[in-house]
Specification:
Layout lengths: L1 H13 L2 H12 L4 H28 L4 H19 L5 H29 L6 H29 L2 H6 L2 H14 E3 L5 E3 L6
Antiparallel strand pairs: 1-2
Length: 193
Amino acid sequence: MVFLVSVVLFHFGNAAMLPMAGQVLGKTHPDADIIALSACIITAQLVMIGVAAAVGCAMRKGVGRKTIFLVAFVTLPIRGFLFTLTDSPFGVVAIQLLDGVAAGIFGVISTIIAADLMRSTGRFNFAQGLVALSTGLGAASSNLCSGFVVQSFSSPAAASSSLPPGFCDRALRRNFYSSSPTGYIHAQASIPG
């Protein structure tokens, strides 16, 4: 259960950042917004490929899943903070590279953690479905909440509103997860089954 809450918090902090950056670019640089957003998506995907390979290498060297997953969560508040500092198309593209880091880690590690939690139960596909549901809930609520924050305050305020989910998730993981010497993650409060 804690793992699924972590997935919701990850996507709550992550999903609305690029659309908000696109809104800011549309207001401040209307001639460069489409190209900058396209570059954001392409460069993040390229970074994600490299990061996914690096995650595999790190795991082979014995780096624990918890440590690797925390790196993805740490990038969220950093990215949110950096988005509040610039409205330059080049700056936004550079900051969006952190999304490639987080997405690359999340794509690999979430599957491995789900497999660890469901080991010998025959419920891996069920766990993957719950991860996908948690992803959708976090992303949808992220966009909904950031829309209210942007409308009520400003885009920088909405970008900085991604800071609390990243820190809350780190606290959740520190308090409810424990790592074994091999680096496998075992939840004290896990998915039933």
